[in-house]
Amino acid sequence: MPFPWVAAAKVIPWTEVIAAAPGLARGARELWQRTRKGAAEPAPDTTESDTPEARIAALEQRVAELAQEGEMRAELIARLAEQNEQLVTALEAQKQRGRLTLALLCVTVAAFALWLLSR
After folding, report:
1. Distance of CA 96 to the CA centre of its chain
2. Distance from the CA of 31 to the CA of which of 22, 41, 87, 109 falls in 20 to 30 A?
3. Closest by alpha carbon to 41, among 16, 65, 6, 68?
């Protein structure tokens, strides 16, 4: 049944989806690069010459980086959720239109059948 999918595709606000796509892709790409970069970096050597202050500063910097990365992930997830919500809303509207069309078709067929029987 390709017809409902074609109709649903027409209802989706493609201009908004296309407008949001580059930002979502850029955010995902940056997040992926940060994740890969973080995984590729070797763990810093902790020698006995490191002072506790230096280690604390390094840990604070890492925590700040992780917080920023978490904010980026949350923003990306929020954008994806918003876009998903728009798609679900559009599909729900299409579902309602499909039901209305089916009801009108049933009424039309019933009226036509009654007309044929009354002839």
Report:
1. 23
2. 87
3. 65
Largest CA distance in the chain: 104
The one-letter code for the residue type at 77 is I
Element (H, E) at 7: helix 2-11
Flag whether pLDDT at 1 surpasses 50.
Answer: no
Question: What would the pLDDT profile of 53-76 be if each residue is shown by its tens digit?
Answer: 999 999 999 999 999 999 988 888
Residues 6+ apart with CB under 8 A from 24: 76, 79, 80, 83
Q: 40 near 32, Cβ under 8 Å?
A: no
